[in-house]
UniProtKB/TrEMBL annotation:
It is found in: Cytoplasm. Its main location: cytoplasm. The keyword Transit peptide does not apply. It comes from Lophotis ruficrista. GO terms for cellular component: cytosol. GO terms for molecular function: acetyl-CoA hydrolase activity; carboxylic ester hydrolase activity. The lineage of its organism: Eukaryota, Metazoa, Chordata, Craniata, Vertebrata. The keyword Lipid metabolism applies. It comes from the Eukaryota. It catalyses: butanoyl-CoA + H2O = butanoate + CoA + H(+). PANTHER family: ACETYL-COENZYME A THIOESTERASE, ACYL COENZYME A THIOESTER HYDROLASE. The gene is Acot12_0. Pathway: Lipid metabolism; fatty acid metabolism. This is ACO12 thioesterase. Keywords: Cytoplasm, Fatty acid metabolism, Hydrolase, Lipid metabolism, Repeat, Serine esterase.
């Protein structure tokens, strides 16, 4: 919140052959009470941008502490789980061509939760490579996802996690980014909103040829005036 001190620490946990895992920890300190607590932990995967056509092979990380050794081991497990999930979801997508019958009297149609936003990438939105900041795209995604969730809970949803956020391709200054968000499912006290991002340059915009550059699944919950979790209604796909 305003007036609190945010500390962000990042370090490379493990370097694989051509990719690396960077661990990011965010803590907040209240200047009035001097209380410090962790507010977010994330793991980002990076690849080095090559000068030519070939990929850059990375040197191993030098491990200095017990924590370094632990994160080094866990990074391998996280990578294994991530790759396994990608294959699992691909298999589910291929098998999901049949429609299931859905009967729920008070269910809310997902059509009511669909939100679309269009953003123009300008120079302040881009990094030194000329590509749109990943954090900027995530911020825009959170906005449309939050609106989508609020149409279901009729309150102010709180973001709990961002899952499977992946860059499928770059976007640059001058691109139009189209964000589509919709509630995928509800789970008692939480809701998953899926967001898909497509990019267009001027020529692609005229021809309606989109580039799929990002997807993510955002989990929200919401609390009432007493601080209790609110139950979400069922949704009808």
């Amino acid at each position: 919140r305003v007036g609190q001190i945010i500390t962000i620490k990042a370090k490379v946990n493990r370097a694989f052959k051509t990719s690396m895992e960077v661990g990011i920890k965010v803590t907040v300190q209240d200047v009035l009470t001097d209380v410090e607590k962790i507010v977010s932990v994330a793991y980002a995967t990076y690849v080095a941008k090559p000068v030519g056509a070939g990929k850059i092979e990375l040197e191993p990380v030098k491990l200095l502490s017990t924590e370094d050794h632990l994160e080094h081991t866990l990074a391998t497990e996280r990578r294994r789980i991530r790759l396994g999930y990608e294959q699992l979801f691909q298999n589910l997508m291929q098998e999901s061509n049949k429609e299931d019958t859905f009967e729920e009297e008070d269910a809310v149609s997902t059509d009511l939760t669909h939100v679309q936003s269009i953003e123009l990438v300008q120079p302040p939105h881009a990094n030194h490579h000329g590509n749109t900041f990943g954090g900027q795209i995530m911020a825009w995604m959170e906005t449309v996802a939050s609106i989508s969730a609020s149409r279901l809970c009729r309150s102010y949803p709180v973001l709990k996690s961002v899952n499977m956020f992946k860059f499928w391709g770059p976007s640059v200054v001058g691109d139009r980014l189209v964000f589509n968000a919709i509630v995928n499912n509800t789970f008692q006290n939480s809701v998953e909103v899926g967001v898909r991002v497509e990019a267009y340059n001027c020529e692609e915009w005229i021809k309606d040829q989109a580039r799929h550059i990002n997807s993510a699944f955002l989990i929200f919950n919401t609390v009432n005036d007493k601080g209790q979790l609110v139950t979400f209604p069922r949704i009808k796909p």
